[in-house]
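Review form for a predicted model. The reviewer records the input and the model, then writes brief findings.
Reviewer: anonymous (R2)
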Amino acid sequence: MSIVVFEDPQCELLAPITLARLAATMTCGSFRLIDLLAPISNEIYGLSRPHLQTLQRIDFPLLRVPDEILVGSENQPERPVSLLLNARIAPTKQAFQQIQSLLRIASQNVPNARPMVVWDREHVAAVINPPWSVEEIFSYGYLNVEDWIEKAKSFEILECELNTIAAPHELIACNMANIGANLEWRIELGASQPESRLHFPGVSELRQLSDGLFLADGATVGEYVLTDTKKGPIIIDRGAQIGPYTLLRGPIYIGPKARILEHSAIKDAVSLSHTTKIGGEVEASVVEPYSNKQHHGFLGHSYLGSWINLGAGTCNSDLKNTYGTVNMEYGYGKASTNMQFLGCIMGDYSKTAINTGIFTGKVIGVCSMMYGFVTSNVPSFVNYARLFGQMASLPPEVMVSTQQRMFARRDVQQRGCDVQLIYDMHRITQMERDRFGDALAL
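Model under review:
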């Protein structure tokens, strides 16, 4: 049964989280949506924003891309679609079960049955047995997604709880709400038979070292590490290292080859992706692959994209002095979060200098450099030193060179598509810098 995972225009409003990554690859509670789909179907297609299609083809072959579908399709029967699935669906155990349920409904439908739609708020979360074939959907392309979403309004409504992430702060809230249950699910899968785990390529076999503490093959824990699992389990995945004199308070997920440095405090709903390096105090945050926060300083209720480096002493605030709820300011306007604790959201490739202080609820774009106090949102591709009266735009060529040096430190080869992504993101985010006007010394 075929699934088409589609990005809708709301994905663009998840920037900076989704500027450099497919929405289906956002990490939340240690999982990504793409991780949940591999066990469900071997015929999965991905309709993504144009600037990410090359990366999708190379890095995520599970999501088949348009030209692989359309080439040679003449004189061949069109492929029916069992399920259209929004790429912004939160990756939880409940979502996995609901998607399985929707596929069962699709398989039971008689030929030419009316399609059904699942809504989450005002967003289409899924369409069962849509009237369009795989070829039709991709011939329409991403730019016409809104047209068939509009047509879906006439479909029969199916009541089903599929939660989508519609704003950046919702990812942080979703991580906190679901990481405990997701880690319990990982433990169940990690204890299952090897052939069952193969269907979940991101799930490792786990052994219990102590009450609530689970390790995968090659994971190591240094001396005098204190673990507290009263609020949830701690999973240390393949090859991860925990330095001595560290506090771990669950629920926590420490991804493959991650490193926790000595004297760190990692606590309460932290989800660390693979090859991250973490020190200091981290609480209720998501950190994507290859990002570093290895020195002292506090990171709380925040999201860090990939290839980020936080300088020594960098701290963010996640609580207002008034103890009130945090309101976020995005490119499209202000948003009420109903969250008392909310830190920063930082896009891929951004960096902070030593002793940088990030105020509550700030959004930092991709490929920017911060110095001193960050008292406002930061556009993408900006040198931000407002404390010193300096703000200037960063040319994409500077970030291409920086990317090359970063990749080399991790033995990652810089590819043409990685370079092109920098230029594409610079083009896409030009309006962010335009809004700052004369404040930027262009």
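Findings: The chain has a mean pLDDT of 92.
Further findings: The longest helix spans residues 168-190.
Recommendation: see findings above.
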